[in-house]
Amino acid sequence: MKYKISSLLTAPILLIFVFVFLLWLADANIFESIVAFFKGAFGGRNFAYLLVTVSRAALITGMALAALIAFRAGLFNIGGEGQLVIGGLASAFVAISLPFGGAVGILLVILSGMTAAALWAVVSGAMKLWLGVPILVGSLLLNYPARYIASYFVNHPLRDVSSGMSQTHLIEKSLWLPLLPTTRLDIGFIFILLMFGLVLFYCYRTVGGYKAKMTGLSIDFANASGLQTKKITLKTLALSGSIAGLVGAIAVLGLHHRFTDGMLVQPLYAWTGIVAALMVSLIPWAILPAGFFFAAIHSGASGMERTADVPKEIAIIIQGLIILFVASKVPTAFEQDTGENK
Amino acid sequence: MAVFGSHFTGSAMWGTLSAVCGGVFMAILFAEFHLRRPGDPIVVSIAINLIALGLSTYLLRAIFKVSGVFQSHNIDKISLVNIPLLEKIPFLGPFISGQSLLFYISLVLVIFAHFFFKFHQLGLWFRAAGENKLALEASGVNSKKIQFLALILCGVLCGLGGAQLSISNVGLFVENMSAGRGWIAVVIVLVTAGRALPLLGLVFLFGSVDSVALRIQGLGLPQQFTEMMPYLASLIALIFVCYRKLKFETNTQGKRNV
Amino acid sequence: MKAELHEVSVKFGPFCAVNNVSLSFLPGEIHALVGENGAGKSTAMSVLFGLNNDYEGKILINDTHKNWCSPADAISAGIGMVHQHFMLQETMSVLENVILCSEPLSKFGFVNFNLATINVQSLISKYDLKIDLTQKISHLSVGQRQAVEILKLLYRNSQLLILDEPTAVLTPSEKHALFLTLSNFKLSQKSIILITHKIDEVMMIADRVSVMRDGKLISSKLLQHTSKDAIQENIIGGKLPKPIKRKKHNPRNIGLELQRIVIPGIATRNEPVSLQVRLGEIVGIAGVSGNGQAPLVEAIIGLRNTISGNIILNDRYITGKEVWERRQLGLTYVPEDRQRVGLALDASVCENACISQIDNQEFSNGFILKLGNIGRFTKKLINNFDIRVESASAKVRTMSGGNKQKLVVARELNQKKPVVIVENPTWGVDIGAINKIHKELIVMRDAGHAILLVSNELEEIMGLSDHIHVMSDGQLSKPLKSAEVTVKKLGDLMLTQNENHPSQKSRN
After folding, report:
1. How far is CA B88 from CA B85, B92, B105, C212, in A?
2. pLDDT per residue over C298-347, tens digit each?
């Protein structure tokens, strides 16, 4: 593929232009904001902000992995948000009601989050297989019930009324994910790294990953060659959902220590994960840098908000623009032409 | 956009116009990245949704220094119109009279759309571009131009919808206030296969589910469940349509595996 | 109208698809353009029709030099094209399709449908076509759709008609109707270009024949100045290949049997279908595409449900079983559509080669892939079948049509399953690959496998099969011994059955 230099340069220049224009709108000092951006993303005392970025990157990468697994199999599961919320809610619920803590407790909480999210994801698969609802629309529409169900639980049965907010009680300290020594970073990102390794292995080396890939490339081919595509569909969605559930559990156990209404929806983890996966055109290993990149943008924007008084939503705008430019360069998995004169 | 326009100019008409401009701007963005460059429509639309969400919140905070809800005395709401004759229609009368001007415009637009797609040259071309682009191009029409035109119209209509939502209903702007209504509209179009008149019926159905939900809330059902209802309703409608199609295909073609 | 291509060349990268071709098309003449797949016929025509504007050379219309920017220019100059894959709007009516993009308008850009109906109706009666204007395209048979395409050209007052493989999907009777229409056009001094690879049709209707090979024009002569054999040798660029030697027909047990199965969607009427294929023989199913062959094959493979009846594979009932179960019980399948069903184009050769055996001990331990074994196995296939590809890890998309097909055939035949279903194995494949594939099928037969061959090419069916059925409108004829069969007899069978049931066919 050949790009002209000029077209390569337009995107960054335009991005910078929009960036500066937005800063000007907010009456912010441009130089100060940019410094704040980089400090917010990578700096801080003892690199505190870098650690925040890492922890955010873990969540985004996790959601990107969830999207990747499903997309690769041709299942356009954009219901990651719903699965994430259900996973988070289930793990918060189990964490609150669990009578014991420790490693076993943590594992149990995570597993329950993963299971719940997997089940939620499988619903859209079942709707596809037995009711004919396209995964894309079905999984999208399931986001909203998930959001409202979670909202109901934290407002009514599970609400910590004394806190005055829509959130559950704080979970037992013994169930919190331990922190890395001398830092405030919890070990959640290690789980994600592990999961990343597993997904790589799954994609390149296992029969399941191979079959899912073939199904994604051409479902007719897979059917005619005797792959059990129904089973593959459900299995893949369950896998995808369980990763989303893991992310939800980590967010609850490590980051927030409780479930607050909207805490998983508002930061757009799921959507950012989806676009991160698409941006690297579903190349598994590239997920990690992509996740980190988007996390850095968000952390940087938070930094700007703290010091330069620039609303942090600037991150969402910039992120959207980046996706636009990248999407128009990289043909994604959604496009499938057959070549040859047919 | 409508809120900004209405706030700054103090006029509902200019507010609506600026809403339309905003919609068209987003449509042009979509066209640039999907039609002129080979961006995938789904990715591009997700990105544009993100930008719209981010931009509205950002501008709100950057310019008015408020977050969440924006309200101002300057905002001029679109006035309600009382059409004397309509009021007298038995049963329906009280419902359809005394609505905002945009309501009547949209009603007329639906009926116009019906005839437009059936009998107008451009309507025919729109349908052709949607169904078989190559065939349209083989007849010598640039389908990209047609699609661009359709997108611009789409932007105009979306802008009108936004105006109705903000400066007609309530006269304020809430972050993410559209709350997925765009997606519901997409589902409705899918379900009705793009036919204008059934679409009108379904839209009314969804509208009533929405408002019935609001009433039920008064009866003590948790707010979350009532807010969920429009989404559940569209899911059910979707299941209904898809299942019928699936049944039809298995019966007539014996298709296995999807 | 007289149209000329003057020293036209088209290059796709380093590859020269059309190489210095000059052709002239005269009014009142049917000009057949023949050649193998990839010989450059369609590319040359896309230049004339304005679809391809990146060429060297000149287009002359009535001796004046023209430059098309898009098909729109060519259309307004009076050139019309019926593409091999019809360019129709499925959900629109015939009338809407015909007038699309040249609508008569009344006020405010609304379409004057009354005037349109009158205009189109007068064309229909002038050329004696049989079309109902109010029907939706999705309800029409292939032949009727083609008539709509032709009507589109007439409505635009085309003087030069390009027809790309128009008979590929027609029954013999529909073909006759088409040829009658074309003769009518000839009388009204239109010029007609017929792109085809069927020589019999050329002999039947053409006035002038031009042969292309490897992008070059080999010959362009009046029909009476050439002969069938000369044309054929020009197409191939050498002598015809020798017929393949085979053992004497020695059938054994029944490998595959269909007992009165009823298949949904096979045609307008759901007649039961019965069939027997014995080990050690090739049974051919002849017929025009779209007469129910595809649903029949899908039902045998397990991609389509049956309503009633039994399918028996090696003495085991497989009705209702899934594809993978059937494959395990001894069945392989070479699908017609290698692009979509036969291969995953964006996967590597390795990944495509082992798809249906991936659960075997050789390729995986049930969880982890044995990549080394897969690579060795793929290289073996590539060598044995003479597949030309960069490497075993190259994407299948980069291969030529013939090599893609060889890969599919190699993968399926290599499994050595007792029953082999083969569907149009040589569609769009060069002569070399055709020979290779035919040879392998004969080898399989001689080794005692049961082979069911479904093909639209009569010569292929007659050359390979021991028994032949004719399929038409979802019905299967009695088996005929191939030694006693003539082209005429098969053609008549397609024809008579069709005349008995003049109903619509569609294949979706």
Report:
1. 6, 9, 20, 77
2. 999 999 888 889 999 999 999 989 999 999 999 999 998 888 899 998 99
Residue C497 has pLDDT above 80, yes or no: no
Q: Shortest CA distance to A242 belongs to which of A66, A61, A60?
A: A66
Q: Which of B128, B142, A194, A8 is nearest to C87 (CA)?
A: B128
**Does residue A300 belong to any structural domain of this protein?**
yes
CATH code, domain carrying A73: 1.10.3470
Rounded to an integer, the average pLDDT of A168-188 is 84
Q: Is some CB atom of chain B closer than 8 A to the CB atom of A145?
A: yes
Q: Could you read off the pLDDT of C102-158 as tens digits, one per residue?
A: 788 877 778 888 888 888 888 888 887 778 888 888 777 777 888 898 888 888 888
Four-way CATH pick for C3-236: 3.40.718.10, 3.30.750.24, 3.40.1050.10, 3.40.50.300:
3.40.50.300
- C1 Cβ under 8 Å from any chain A Cβ: no
Q: Cα(first)–Cα(last) distance of chain B, in Å?
A: 43
Strands C273-278, C450-454: pairing is: unpaired
Quote the percentage of chain B above a pLDDT of 70.
69
Interface check for C89 against chain B (CB to CB < 8 A): the answer is: yes
- How distant is the Cα of A2 from the closest Cα of chain C, in angstroms? 14
Chain C environment of A217 (Cβ under 8 Å): 344-347
Residue among A205, A225, A227 minimizing CB distance to C369: A205
Name the packing angle between helices B181-191 and B223-253 (round to 10°): 30
Does C197 score more than 50 pLDDT? yes
Identify the residue with better confidence: A117 or A37.
A117
What DSSP designation does C336 have?
Answer: S
Pick among 3.40.630.30, 3.40.50.300, 1.10.300.10, 1.10.10.10: CATH of C254-504: 3.40.50.300
Q: Where in chain C is the domain with CATH 3.40.50.300?
A: 3-236, 254-504
Residue A26 at interface with chain B, using a CB cutoff of 8 Å: yes
The closest of C129, C124, C212, C214 to C177, measured between CA atoms, is C129
Nearest CA in chain B to A320: B47
- CB contact under 8 Å between B183 and A141, yes or no, is yes
* A1 close to C (CB below 8 A): no
Least confident of A162-171, A295-304, A321-330: A321-330
Give the residue carrying structure tokens 């793990």: A91
d(CA C170, CA C148): 14
Q: Is the ipTM of this complex over 0.90?
A: no
Domain total in chain A:
1
Query: Is A65 inside a domain boundary?
Result: yes
Task: Give the model confidence (pLDDT) of C33-80 as tens digits.
Answer: 988 777 888 888 889 988 888 888 889 998 889 888 888 888 888 898
**What is the domain partition of chain B in residue ranges?**
180-258
pLDDT at A281 over 80: no
